[in-house]
Write a structure and sequence with these properties.
Helix content is 39%, strand content 26%. By secondary structure, the chain is an alpha+beta fold.
Length: 72
């Protein structure tokens, strides 16, 4: 088993957070970097319902997409 802190630490993106939506059956990544912000939902009830590798891929892909927006 792993925690959300483990996921965020392994992704290594300081502007990325991972939360469970209160009262909902999904999680979301939140990206916030000085005015550049966004949210990506992951439709899964429990963190460990997905493999760690999937979480890392989702988070890294989302963070990269957000960084690419800044470069435009």
């Amino acid at each position: 088993m792993f925690t959300r802190e483990t996921v965020v630490h392994l992704i290594g993106e300081p502007c990325l957070k991972l939360y469970r939506a209160k009262g909902k059956d999904h999680w979301y990544f939140e990206f916030d970097d000085h005015g550049l912000s966004g949210i990506k939902r992951v439709m899964v009830k429990r963190l460990n319902d997905l493999p760690l590798a999937t979480w890392l891929n989702e988070g890294r892909t989302f963070a990269a997409a957000m960084r690419a927006k800044r470069e435009r």
